[in-house]
Amino acid sequence: xxxxxxxxxxxxxxxxxxxxxxxxxxxxxxxxxxxxxxxxxxxxxxxxxxxxxxxxxxxxxxxxxxxxxxxxxxxxxxxxxxxxxxxxxxxxxxxxxxxxxxxxxxxxxxxxxxxxxxxxxxxxxxxxxxxxxxxxxxxxxxxxxxxxxxxxxxxxxxxxxxxxxxxxxxxxxxxxxxxxxxxxxxxxxxxxxxxxxxxxxxxxxxxx
Length: 208
Fold this sequence. Notes:
Layout: H1 5-9, H2 12-25, H3 33-40, H4 46-51, H5 54-75, H6 82-98, H7 101-111, H8 121-133, H9 144-167, H10 173-188, H11 194-206
């Protein structure tokens, strides 16, 4: 397969990842490492040398998605209130996943399968939500320290949970944003004042 000038300028690692994305986009989630090497235009050993296994490649693709969410959140105007920031970040995260749903469902499905690779998806995701929460502005002062310690991990779990049902086809693309906002709302509910609580409850009611 002929390589474009853009592809040839990529690092070997990125060429392998781009090739994996192309195979996934074409519905070839069960691609072999040999097929991947051919698609990337590299030797058979190169994907192994760069990543070690197909599972590690999927983890690297997942890390790219989380990095994209972080970059896009950093580029937008961010509200002062933590609740508004979290809801905005969930919306951005959903848009990243829906940009290539076939690819991203395959990545999510691979992450849910047993493997020997040590996953860092949870910790990477928690870092994202820690950045989103910042100093917890407008969260209830009495429980803010607990919120800042607890919420990054719980928001990571909530978003991953919604994505797992989306990956399984139980949540259609058109409802992913709504269900994600509802999941975030349920997690935040115990740490906000009356005004934010009312807004979150309305989001939960919309998802019913």
